[in-house]
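Quick one: structure for this chain?
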Amino acid sequence: MTGKRRFLLLRAALLTALCVLGVSVPVFAQVPENSWGLDYEGKAITAVLPLAGDETEMIRRFHGEIMESVAALGKYSPREAYVPAGTRLPTDMPPIPSLVSDARYALTGGVYPGELVGEYYLQLWLWDMAGSTMIYTDDLVYGDMDEAIESVPGLVEWLFSHIHEKSVEETPADVWPDPLFILGARAGISQRWYVKPNERSPGASAPNLEGGFSGALRLNSLFSVQLELFLTGDTLVYRGLEDSSSGPVLKNKRYTNVSLEIPVLCKMNFRVGKIRLSPLAGLYATVPLGETNYRDKEGTADTVAWSISNPLGLTAGLEGAAPCGPGMIFAGLRYGADFGVMSIDSEEREYRRNMVSLYVGYEFGFFEGKRMPGFEKTR
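Got it. Here's what it folds into:
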């Protein structure tokens, strides 16, 4: 190896060490990833700078073959770097960033006479312009120009084989379930307050169980319409004085009945982390099932008819859901109030309900990703 070549390799090794230690110029520290250094096809732009040396014809032929060889690799897009006349380009130093501002990689080099008469060598340097660091350098010693041209593709491929690209594993997208239809089941407890038409405050109260099914149809990612069917009951305990042949008598009567509640709700669905929060509001209808069971403190039991003057009522609340297994577990809190008055016909008892319900349930989604015609995904 000639003294000049030893000197060039020594300078390259020193430069690489300095770059590793952080001396390199942070020209591209603020450049967004996956945009800078790539062409419109996603190939890494590689600047090919003019070769140094006095062998003009050899340099011309080598330059064209280098451009073709880089393009043949498939992953790189060679670009000729414009260098103003008179600019000195040291081949063993990284190119000035302003000359290759859009390039991810850069090739420099030169053609120099060898130790023997008629012997030359082509030396190439491959640079990573993200940090102005050397990737690899090698040379091609030749005596016949035609044979040298045939060897250029192998030399270029050898240099680029030392590019070790970091394999970035793509993080799976955080996909939020957005099915077209949701079917669920729920159960809970409902505290009821019973108010007579002429009362200002409830005269009786009792907790009751409830449970049933629900089905929701998504209109878009924010709104859905939900229909529910669930069984519930009422327990009204009446305590008061009633007239009898022997005078006023304290009566303690218990009325229980079962009804079918049919709420129709509008829900807004918001995502907070992995939790879905759904404010909801709507109307419900109460359908009496069977008669009211009656029992007093003396043990007398009977059934009596009951009716509702207006079966509709208003309900509103908040529901939260979270992924759990193949579906989602949910819980909710609601308030409801009757529009009409419930009447126990033969007893002439009338009352209106106010209700606070707490429930939990589980739901499954169907037809994930399908959209209702005319609605776009707003999330």
